[in-house]
Amino acid sequence: VALRDVNVVVPTSAGEALAAFGDGEGVTVVAGGTIVLPELVAGRLRPERALLLGRAGLDRITRAKGRVTIGAATPVSALEDGDEPLATAARHVGDLEVRAQATVGGNLCAEASADAPRGDLQAALIVLGAEVRSAGGGGERTEPVEQFLSGDVRRRLVLDVSYEDVPRHAAYAASWRPHAHHYTILAVAAARQDGELRVAATGVAPRAVRLTAVERSGDPADALTGLEPRDDAVASAWYRTRVLPKLVARALEGVA
Ligand SMILES: Cc1cc2nc3c(=O)[nH]c(=O)nc-3n(C[C@H](O)[C@H](O)[C@H](O)COP(=O)(O)OP(=O)(O)OC[C@H]3O[C@@H](n4cnc5c(N)ncnc54)[C@H](O)[C@@H]3O)c2cc1C
């Protein structure tokens, strides 16, 4: 019933997916569907066209030419034993059932809603210095994750994310409510590579943010510089304001 009036397209290659997505006008991408399917079923979302990514061959992780490349439709569960801090971030997403279904591309495009902080992988990908390859109006482009997140995410089809395949010191610290199907409330990822420190947080704003003041000073007390933490159904801004510097301290200790 949910898809009765919707043109459902199931591409079997990346090329077909690109052609079907076009400039993204009127298209809703369905990857794991953990966010978007309930919206379709409840009738809150009525796209002209639904692009189902499950068979487009975008679900592989490769290591070649000094880079790790993760296809957009790769399930979050496939990252759990991989590189840090992405592996720990992945293990914190929802529960087993959600992680098996949810994808990397969906997590990157997910925006926090009033009742659910989302996008746990975004902070980890930012500190890995990851780049997103996407397509849409104006063609294909590759850009840093934080630049991608600050643009018009809804009009891009994510193809993959990649980062340098080098050793680094990394850590991840999170707070969440201990019950089944939990959402992370707040999380901080940090990584040091070639002497450069990168720190980012998820759960503070609708999408992950880079904590540049902390990167410069190395001081958790700078965690809130330029930020006003969000209020939502799982935690208040008051709580986030108090917990963020503590998670930053824990992540920095982990990196050290
Ligand atoms: C019970 C429960 C618990 C959860 N807990 C967490 C949690 O702890 N942490 C967390 O981060 N998230 C959580 N989530 C949210 C969600 O599962 C994840 O963010 C997941 O990674 C989304 O991926 P998906 O493939 O299911 O996205 P989908 O639902 O398929 O899509 C989500 C959005 O991204 C777009 N999209 C998907 N793939 C692409 C692509 N390749 N290119 C362009 N646009 C795309 C869709 O159009 C849609 O707007 C939870 C969800 C549930 C139901």
Write up what this structure looks like.
This protein is of the alpha+beta class and 256 residues long. It has 9 helices and 12 strands. The strands form 3 sheets. A 5-stranded antiparallel β-sheet has the order 4-5-8-6-7. β4 (61-64) and β5 (67-71) form a beta hairpin. The mean pLDDT is 93. The structure holds flavin-adenine dinucleotide. The site of flavin-adenine dinucleotide has 32 residues, from β2, α4, α5 and β8. Residues 28-36, 53, 72, 76, 93-94, 98, 101-103, 105-107, 109-110, 118-120, 156-158, 181, 183-184 line the site of flavin-adenine dinucleotide (FAD).
Number of DSSP strands?
12
Spell out which ligands are present.
flavin-adenine dinucleotide
Average pLDDT across residues? 93
Question: Beta-strand level of the residues, as a percent range?
Answer: 25-35%
Assembly context of the chains: single chain
Contiguous runs where pLDDT drops below 50 for at least 5 residues: none
From the N-terminal CA to the C-terminal CA, the straight-line distance is: 54 Å
H/I helix tally = 9
Order of SSEs:
EHEHEEEHHHHEEHEEEEEHH
Shape descriptor: globular
Sheet/helix structural class: alpha+beta
Please compute the radius of gyration using only Cα atoms.
Answer: 18 Å
> Largest beta sheet: what is the strand line-up?
4-5-8-6-7
> Strand count, sense and closure of the main sheet?
5 strands, antiparallel
> Percent range for helical residues?
25-40%
